[in-house]
Amino acid sequence: MSQERLASVTPTANAPSSISDLEALLKDDVKVKVAGVDVDGILRGKYMSKEKFLSAASSDGFNFCSVIFGWDMHDTVYSRELLISNRANGYRDLIASIDLATYRRIPWENNVPFFLVSFLDPDTKEPICADPRGALRQVVTKAQSKGWRPIAGCEYEYFQFKETPESLAKKNFTDLQPLTPGMHGYSLLRTQINSEYFNDLFDESLKFQIPLEGHHTETGPGVYETALAYTDALRMADNAILFKFLAKSVGMKRGVVPSFMAKPWGNLPGCSGHIHVSLRDEEGKSIFAVSDSELKTGRANAQYEDTKFLSQEGEWFLAGILEGLPDVMPMLVPTINGYKRLVGGEAFWAPNAVTYGYDSRAASVRIISPPSVPPSATRMEVRVPGADMNPYFAMSAIFALGLRGIEKKLPLPGPPVGQLTQEEKKAGKVKMLPQSLEAATERMMRPESIAREEAVFGNDFVDHYGGTRQHEVKLWNEAVTNWEVERYLELA
């Protein structure tokens, strides 16, 4: 799929539409900051001189070392050769294609202009399969070819620690001090402690063109939750990645380390990265909404009571997510630690099974529809991802599976979570999600995986991304943890 035919991101305010606009926009600047996204959702970028940047923007882009797809989040080269970047070709350059629609200025860095890039193969000029922005862009393009706009929202829960990068290293990441003590969800008192930092997160987000819908404390010592405003899926993923960058940058200035690790404390709730999704038609109407005539009694041919206020396309979309969810788990939960958050039950509302239900926070997919919201707000909340997700891959997986469900007109795999009896649960009639990154990666990489279907992600992506997760598992299996030493050193 060529770059020209791929969907573009919703432009930010004042985004340039031509090189002349760009030159005028940067007339008083001497440098520009650019960044792309690696498979772990980490921004990899640099400063460029204005002259070099304008030259790159006027052509195909600029060269960027492919090693960012050949090493992990700590710059350790992957354990084996992978498709995109490898030792054999000496980590040759990729083409970094500048996305002018992502223009914004970084308010805490003297308003330096900033742009995101996508990565292209230098020979074919096609998007590389492992580029997170490219992966989501291709799924969005597929939806747009059917006249639908994928829309998404993202909610982050994250701990704050009264630490610095230096203090973390000095303490060996142990005995960390939470920003505030106690379990204080939705607290008006706890936000008055460190109020400058708390308010900076909101205010700097608006300046950085990341509109927020809500920002409050969540239950847990020093935990915040921030809901990013609903928008087109590509823009949403950009905003989600950049919000993490913003939070960590603002935190460093205030002596705070915000952590998006999924489960930093074993005995406390983890940190979610819930994703809300819907499809809209060219007039902006929700594809998932029922017709006006069905608003009183619901859709007559709905499979279950919980889905009677979803359109038929919405029910198929939901069925597609549910059928494929176990095969794409590494794209939603990409870390070793992330699976420790998925404990199931209603204590922490972190689902570990293939379940759905109307307005159910205990389910993997929560249906949000009338009567609790107006038809225009009909959507689904996928509650499996943690705050450590890569939002591009997570949204790519959700929309790719949902579109597949519509294409195949898939039936729902079973009753809603509220209709499952304890006997059915004990009898294994509820399909469980993989319980570790190792099991999830094995499932995604098996030959019959839905993720391998060409209409979903294809073999190239699965082999490369799966290889990066195998590397993560290998490092974990080789690690000797504090728990092991405390348990076995004296008594084994």
From TrEMBL:
Q: Which GO terms describe its molecular function?
A: ATP binding; glutamine synthetase activity; kinase activity
**PANTHER family per the UniProt record, alphabetical:** GAMMA-GLUTAMYLPUTRESCINE SYNTHETASE, TYPE-1 GLUTAMINE SYNTHETASE 2
Query: What protein name does the entry list?
Result: Glutamine synthetase
PROSITE patterns per the UniProt record, alphabetical: GS_CATALYTIC
Protein family (similarity comment)? Belongs to the glutamine synthetase family.
Keywords in alphabetical order: ATP-binding, Kinase, Ligase, Nucleotide-binding, Transferase
What Pfam families does the annotation carry?
Answer: Gln-synt_C (PF00120)
Highest taxon of source? Eukaryota
Domain GS catalytic intervals: 132-492
GO BP = biogenic amine metabolic process; glutamine biosynthetic process
The record ties this protein, via InterPro entries, to: Gln_synt_N_sf, Gln_synth/guanido_kin_cat_dom, Gln_synth_cat_dom
In its UniProt entry, the species of origin is given as Polyporus arcularius HHB13444
Q: Does the keyword Kinase apply?
A: yes
Keyword check for Magnesium, yes or no: no
